[in-house]
Design a protein that fits this description.
The chain is an all-alpha fold. The chain has one domain. It contains two helices and no strands. α1 runs antiparallel to α2. The longest helix has 28 residues. The radius of gyration is 15 Å and the shape is elongated.
Length: 66
């Protein structure tokens, strides 16, 4: 269970880091007064949802592991 917890935690950190990095990049390369492309918003929403799922799974494994 320790290995599973470490793997899930690592995936969560990687997903969150990539979402933040890409979000900051899109923000810095989008001209002022314009909205980013809808596809990039959808992509980041999907990555954020995956991050939440992996965080909850890691917490569940950590709490219920004996």
């Amino acid at each position: 269970m320790k290995v599973l917890s470490i793997v899930l935690g690592s995936i969560s950190v990687l997903l969150l880091g990539s979402t933040l990095l890409c979000g900051f990049w899109i923000n810095s390369h989008t001209p002022a007064g314009t909205a980013p492309e809808a596809s990039s918003i959808t992509f980041h929403t999907q990555i954020a949802v995956a991050s939440v799922i992996f965080v909850l799974a890691a917490l569940g494994v950590s709490i219920f592991a004996k």
